[in-house]
Fold these 3 entries.
Entry 1:
Amino acid sequence: MKRVLTIAGFDPSGRAGISADLKTFDDLGVEGVAAITALTAQNSTTVAATLPIEPKFVRKEIVTLLAEVGFDAIKIGMLGSSETVTMLARFLKKERIEKVVLDPVLRSTSGTWLIDKNGLEEIKKLLPLVHVVTPNIDEAGALTKKKIQNVTDMEEAAKTIHSLGVKFVLLKGGHLKGAPTDVLFNGKDFTHYSGTRLGGSKARFHGTGCILSAALCANLAKGVSVKKSTENARKYLTKVLKTRK
């Protein structure tokens, strides 16, 4: 069985972060292990507080797991502090793990920042060590310093993010009006993935970015192409959302 590491924060609601990642891995038939970067006090709609874990301890979590099981792929979510991002970049440079998916979590849907003010610039430095990055509209806007209002803007943003060194950019368009469209860019070609917008409360969509990136990472670990992994991950996410209220 393929083994996948998630490096992310703990969400006690169970719908996002480490909890959602491990459930996704299990559903998709890979063995999941986890290194927790931060504790959070939150429910399915609000983040009340966050407590980043010391980067040295996060590194100890990762290397202890690596010594026993090894990783076929790594999914990165909330990192909590710029120091943890820096530590992780050093780790990835040393270990040269190919299949790394980064969900660049900057703030919660409710507006709480989930990384310190220097974290954004450090995340940009992490991109050359990543295989696929999966920003939403707000995260892509922060990375490019441009407002994204339509699919054309998404394509331009994907080009800019790709120029920072990442191999694939999957820009998620669910925050735009109309039918949700995601854009995948490999440096040459664009692939558009369109879907049907689902209704419901904010709680229903809590953790969707975590689930999508974890599902994509699980597929990559099993040897599936990025394009097909994206398609499979979107189908899995839709299946999960249809079970939620």
Note: The beta strands are 3-10, 31-42, 47-52, 73-76, 100-102, 132-133, 168-171, 181-185, 190-194.
Entry 2:
Amino acid sequence: MAVQNIILPIVYFFAKIRPIEKGLVIFADAHNDKCPVSMRCVSDRMKRDDDFSVLEFYHDFQRCGNFKSLKYSIEFMRLYARAEFVFICDNFLPVSSCKKRKGTVVIQLWHGCGAFKKFGYDTAGDIPKYYKGNVYKNYDVVTVSSDECIKHFASAMRLDKKVFKPIGVSRTDFYFDNSLKEKSKEKFFRENPSARGKRVALWAPTFRGNPGNPYQAGDKAVARLAKELLSTGEWYFVTKLHPHMKMEKTDFIQTASDIPTEMIFPCADLLITDYSSVIFEYALHRKPILIFAPDIEKYKSERGFYLDIETLPAKIVTDADDLTVKTVEDAITEFDENKTNRFLEKYMISCDGSSTDRIIEYVRELKTKRKIRRTSK
């Protein structure tokens, strides 16, 4: 908190003596060493635009240690003080460490769609009790997947509803690009040749606990199901854990893959998940979903949901003994595309393959309005 509330604001105070550089755009993330998929489309587009000068700032703070994290944060604050636009897609504390100058616009692209499980200030554990101030402070724009999400995001982030713009989530444009989907399939089957001619089941769960101390649930039941599916000779099983679990060792059988989760979606015939927001993105493919929720009552009381899990376009299993090959087959035969379409219309209506276009256009409109105001003065 000393770094967040004292050191970084001091750096920013002296750095903002210099004027804002018109057209300077910063893309920043503290969870990856390269551009996250949630910002990739917007970043690539702006790099090709002569009206913008793009600088990128990506460092995995958990891996680089406290000293390097401080060093990188100070470097960011110097850039932050003179940038016209700053893009982030997850919690990025340096952005919220000071009172931002009005000439800088912070745009939160966020990394998830819809609003399923509670997050931020709506649930215990997400925000450390010792944190002073609002983790989401200084956001001027937060892009979301539909109007239905605004009330939940506003509550979770403790921000005014007008900050949230239902213009879509940029990362979902990938799912509407047929050439990229075909490349994903080619890569997946090239790296997983045993999957050819079989149906692919993808297990992509979220984590339990908090980001600082995450743990997994339902492992043994899923391991048993994986073995049963593999023994039929008709299925191929892939596991993709939540990024917070990437350093954890697992004791269940899995067919590992280094391919990003979103690139496996076009190849999967069934998604098995729990309370993860991947259901919103996978639903865009209009394919079956199986939710395995063995700890649902505990999860409801400890974290909570924004929507009723029974309304999801998925087959739901809460008892480990019911997680069987037959259940998987039932999930496929009972798939209701009409229910999925209604779900998408409510929570993903703005994710139609043109989200990045709308985001870029919105940024251009902001830039034009600000230029007119400066000229009129």
Note: The longest strand covers residues 24-29.
Entry 3:
Amino acid sequence: MLRRPEGASIEEIAVAFAWQKHTIRAAISVAVKKKLGLDVTSEKVDGRGRVYRAR
């Protein structure tokens, strides 16, 4: 979901995976950034909240 051009919000990930929001933030921080070494960016998008993208 993070690699889609439109990225993913915490809420969208929570619905898709039935995870709690704090678990998603930890997964992005630890697994995606540190272990996979991907560059994760975030920006605030009107109507969606904070959107994360991985490259």
Note: Residues 31 and 37 are 8 Å apart (CA to CA).
